Amino acid sequence: MAEIQISVGSTIALPKAALEKLVANLHRMGYQVLGPQIQDGAIVYKPLESAQVLPRGYTSQQDSAHYHLVYTGHQRYFDVTPGAQSWKQFFFPPQTELASYMREENGRWKIEERIIDQTPLALFGVFPCDLAAIQIQDRIFLREEWKDPFYWAHRQSAFILAVNCLHPCGTGFCASMGTGPKASSGFDLNLTELEDVFLVEIGSEGGRLVMEGLPILPTSAFWLQARQNSLDEASSKMGRSLPAPQDLPDLLLNNLDAQQWDDVARRCMSCSSCTQVCPTCFCWDARDSADLTGQTARRERLWDSCFNQDYSYIVGGNSRPNTRSRYRQWLTHKFASWYAQFGTSGCVGCGRCITWCPAKIDVTAEIRAIREEVQA
Fold this sequence. Notes:
It is a single chain. Strand 6 and strand 7 (109-112) form a beta hairpin. The termini are far apart. This protein folds into two domains: 11-236, no CATH class; 245-375, no CATH class. By secondary structure, the chain is an alpha+beta fold. The strands form four sheets. Strands 1-11-10-9-8-2-3 form a seven-stranded mixed sheet, with helices on both faces. Strands 7-6-13-12 form a four-stranded antiparallel sheet, with no helix packed on it. Strands 4-5 form a two-stranded antiparallel sheet. It contains twelve helices and 15 strands.
């Protein structure tokens, strides 16, 4: 058999039995591999030592305020859609030490050097909506005029193995947002899981190197057609939809006094769950602390939320003193003013905010209600 040439942009087939060797190749190249695993009845992302611990045979059931893993015994690795966690925790952690200080004998404070662990990360099994979220976070933390040094340290060398989403969750609407079910860019490798093989798109030179030595096969027209059929079927099976998202900036920003804002405010608890699970939210606060002796101190960055009352406090009072104003700020920023700031929507349609809202608030239903109120 003639040798198969692998190049950036090409698509090849990989037998499923070779997935273990793919993980091993990443380890051998020096990556800390992170992947989806089952813990406490949910999908979490943590160090991945073997393909054997991937959630093979599982599916997930998701709806408003409902998440449940189900074992069916099938042989697929990536049927389970993401849980509450997102990949942003590895580039923008929930808690980061920014600086530490020590008081010297002369009473002056000395800043201790902050050493950032730059072990390259390999994210294994990133769904298209989460891949789009990473690219949105890149626009926030890696601007032309400023780069967040902590984000940059982990992001620049990261390897991303994406997986096309063929079994979307009950609350997802990535097809409406143009972020799925197929990954279009930003990956080193992109897998489509068929019955017996993975179709692998090579997205970078790093992705090509990882595939060296694996028992690859040439793609066939049958496999390519099966991939397209599966993607088409996934698009038609989205749990939610959001018609005309490009019209949302005008709809939301021109109707800030709609009655629907009052209705959702009566249900919303300002618990901030939606912002904590969102893969694109980036609000944070800085906190200073000192030990009881007064000899050491530290400054930390922690995730914050626009739903927290203190977040909007300024000299003279709170600019968003009630739940109505805070929910309206979150929704209009996510689907409207984000475009002006970053040139994209702040939503990727992953559906986490719907799944993990204890009040069962559904952003697609709220937007639809505002549109119907305006058009009435």
